[in-house]
Amino acid sequence: MASTLVDEDRALDSRGPQKTSTVAGAGRFLMSRLRQIGIFLALLVIVTLFQGLTGGALLQPDNVYNIIVQNSYILLLAIGMVMIIVAGHIDLSVGSVAAFVGAMSGIMIRDWSLPWWAALVAALAVGALVGAWQGFWVAYIGIPAFIVTLAGMLVFRGLTQIVLENQRITGFPTEYRQLGGGSLFPGLFPPATNILDWTTVGIGLIATAMLVVSQLRGRANRAKLHLEDEPRAWFLTRLVFGVVVILALTFLLASSRGGTPIVLVVLGVLVVAYSAVMNRTVFGRHVYARGGNLQAAQLSGVNTKRVDFLLFVNMGVLAALAGLVFTGRLNSAGPGAGSLFELDAIAAAFIGGAAVTGGVGTIIGAITGGLIMGVLNNGMSLMGVGIDYQQFIKGLVLLLAVGFDVFNKRRASNALK
């Protein structure tokens, strides 16, 4: 009897340190991912807060549809902006470029009588040329991006007013307007006979399956190469959270009158594509290297001038796409379009975890930051908060996000000492 008790005590003693070390290891892992975890927790807290303050109006299906459509052009800009910021630059011209491209597309359709699809393609080409123009001055002449894009903000705002003659163009073709405000296969399943939009349900289930397969395959590949350091419990928690979010969004959109916005499909494709570019390609690694340490990247053989040039060309195309989405949603192109778009896109990137000094940032983080800004705007509007207080609160949120980034860096540097 006594020997049995002694053996049990020894077993407990042997398990105690192991359990403690496991908990401590999990704690250290979560602290190392504080930047990534914090942004999603912030979005969850803000959604929960406004859901309560608005009496449940925030997560009404039609309102969720509106949040996505109303913020789609900012999310498009945030994709390109976070890449620019990761490389250590900034782009202040994207709002003016979006307005200029929207105006040019209107001119092409109204005055040049181009088909809507040809106007869309030509407008994207104009965006690429604008990006190449600014990228040339940044990459090959060596003028700081802040100065080049500040000049671009003035130049393309002026050109927008010139080509429009300070007048608004309206009355675009229905196909053109679908990009910014249309739904995928509307009327395929009439709401009178179906509770849910089954097109949306199918898309949501496909997206869920793709997420699960990609995450499991990625973990298996990392384990095979002995690179996996993420605890299994945290991996499963993260995966389940992603699945729940996609299914919840699917249900809300399927319950809305609009179904799946076309621009959401475009956004989803771009997020997947650009995430793959940044995480799995040589170009993506060069972007991070250029922003992390310019001299080290150059000594390693990275063609930083080419990287900078291509980043601004890409930003021009995405700004053009955002301008087309905005113009199509409003069914008008005006000289004042795109105002403050650049500030919202920059705020989305920084709130999403991008570092002020470059080298850090993700596409998913920027999209999450953009959604935080969108939920703040929508929630405060539902509560009847004035635009003055909205600007004040958004400014504080941006300041806190950057302060959180500085705190993380200091904590990491202190840990190394």
3D architecture notes:
Helices cover 77% and strands 1% of the residues. The protein has helices at 2-32, 34-53, 61-70, 72-86, 94-110, 116-141, 145-164, 174-181, 198-224, 232-255, 262-280, 282-292, 294-299, 304-330, 341-351, 363-382, 387-416, and strands at 169-170, 332-333. It has a two-stranded antiparallel sheet. The longest helix is centred in the N-terminal third of the chain and has 31 residues, at 2-32. The radius of gyration is 24 Å and the shape is globular. This is Xylose transport system permease protein XylH.
The total strand number stands at 2
Q: What is the overall silhouette?
A: globular
Helix and strand sequence: HHHHHHHEHHHHHHHEHHH
Kindly provide the radius of gyration, computed on alpha-carbon positions and rounded to a whole number of angstroms.
Answer: 24 Å
Helical coverage, percent range: over 70%
Tell me the number of helical segments per DSSP (H or I, 4 or more residues long).
17
Give start-end ranges of low-pLDDT stretches: 8-16
Our estimate of the beta-strand percent is under 5%
Specify the biggest β-sheet.
Answer: 2 strands, antiparallel
Q: How confident overall, as mean pLDDT?
A: 86
SS-derived structural category: mainly alpha
Cα distance spanning the termini: 51 Å
Strand order within the widest beta sheet: 1-2
